[in-house]
Amino acid sequence: MRLLIIGALEGQLTEATRLAMQGGAKVAHAATIEIALATLRAGRGAELLLVDVMVDIPGLIAALDGERIVIPVVACGTETNAAAAVNAIRAGAKEYIPLPPDAELIAAIIAAVARETTDFLFRDPGMARIVELADQIAPSDASVLITGESGTGKEVMAKYLHGKSRRAGHAFISINCAAIPENLLESELFGHEKGAFTGAIARRIGKFEEASGGTLLLDEISEMDVRLQAKLLRAIQEKIIDRVGGTRPVPVDLRIIATSNRNLTDAVRNGTFREDLLFRLNVVNLKLPPLRDRPLDVAALAEHFVAKYSKANGLPPRTLTPEARLALLRAPWPGNVRELENTLHRAVLLARGEIIDTQAIVLPDGSGLGEATRPATLATQAAQMADSISRSFVGRTVSDVERDLILDTLDHVLGNRTHAANILGISIRTLRNKLNQYADEGLAIPNPGEQRKIA
Q: Do domains 2-115 and 376-440 have the same CATH topology?
């Protein structure tokens, strides 16, 4: 983790640095806001800013916002600086640390920031298969496309991949392609030279250079203008970029992860996304299922968020009633994990006492959770389908059911045996032995792209 300390910290700078480095952080210093901004512009970024409370923290946060630099700020100062501490928190600082620095407190903050890159809570078998595939490909440098509905945890998965990769000791840099105006996105990605355009008051290192050695996340890549996609494709293929206004190419070494909540194949068909860029990004696709299809994750995440926000708000531990848990499982969660988190944060605050019942679980429009549950007809259809499937197994041998499951799965993945083995939860060798057995029995085994024919 990279830590940038700003200010003098009233003589406590050396001790704070020593404690941070003991916690595994790489530490840089900046005496003033101007020096700090110059450091960040130069690509020597940070995952956390530890700032003297006597520095103009509102001005620092405004400057970071103005340059679209997103880094959490933690203020620190003597216990007598109570008013300054309050102002820092109001301005947007995430936390306040009293000085002299406490070793356990600094270690806890650094650990919390570091955990954000690797923590990924899941219990559902569907998500477990995705994580297993992520573990398998994480050590490689292959580009990964993470798809799924908004709020399913695509950025969390990207951080998980980085944390498990050989580049984990280097920077993880994220850029939201949908949040930056089209005319500024090229500069954000590739950087610019002083005077390259109006407002370019100094050289600015772009995200590609800042991420060199580590991982670059292109969040919501589908929102990027098609004209910029050509330059992005060249940068990914050649590992060379050109700063805006620059006169010489700059080599970079990084891994690319992209996310999208849209169907990029449809975007290619509509002419809003380059097909060659999609092929370059989509070496491996991790498709995250929506929360409504992950009931075990709903239960696990609910407990996690209740504990998290009880502690964050200084409240005694809260407990969900069985009725509340059932209501959470029945809800459709169109906003996925993000919506579940906000709902439970609200429930922690609205609960009367240490028990969270269904009355405390309120949606943003003020309606109860029960009013948002899935229609009964869907539940009826699901039950009928499950009953039909279970009846279809009656009178058949286990080997027959296993054979049809294996061959149907192979059909589903168009003959890709590695993918089929991952879905089935068996080794590729086991799958190959089973297919050889079926072939010896006279059954036609599909090749990639070929549908199985039943005689």
A: no
Which amino acid, 149? Answer: E
Q: For residue 144, list its beta bridge partners.
A: 257, 284
Domain 2-115 has CATH 3.40.50.2300: yes
Domain spans in the chain, listed from the N-terminal domain onward: 2-115, 128-287, 292-372, 376-440
The 3-class SS string of 353-413 reads CCEECHHHCECCCCCEHHHHCCCHHHHHHHHHHHHHHHHHHCCCCHHHHHHHHHHHHHHHC
Residues 6+ apart with CB under 8 A from 53: 75, 76, 77, 81, 84, 85, 88, 96
Q: What contacts 24+ positions apart, CB below 8 Å, involve 181-187?
A: 182/225, 182/228, 184/68, 185/224, 185/225, 185/228, 186/228, 186/231, 186/244, 187/244
User: Quick one: pLDDT band at residue 381, thresholds 50, 70, 90?
Assistant: very low
DSSP H or E run through 147: strand 144-147
DSSP class of 289: P
pLDDT, tens digit, 9 for 90 and up, residues 429-442: 888 888 888 888 87
Q: What number is the average pLDDT over the span 39-45?
A: 77
- CATH 3.40.30.10 for the 376-440 domain, yes or no: no
Q: What percent of the chain has pLDDT over 90?
A: 32
Chain segment 182-209, per-residue pLDDT in tens: 778 998 899 888 888 877 778 888 899 9
DSSP-assigned letters across all residues of 326-338: HHHHHS--TTHHH
pLDDT(53) > 50 = yes
**Are 281 and 258 within 8 A, CB to CB?**
yes
What single-letter amino acid sits at 444? A
**Tokens read off for 225:** 């203008």
CA distance 276 to 282: 10
Q: Which fold has domain 128-287?
A: Rossmann fold (3.40.50)
Residue with tokens 């005694």: 316
d(CA 245, CA 112) in angstroms, rounded, equals 39
Kindly report the CATH class assigned to 292-372: mainly alpha
127: left (phi over 0), alpha (psi -120 to 50) or beta: alpha
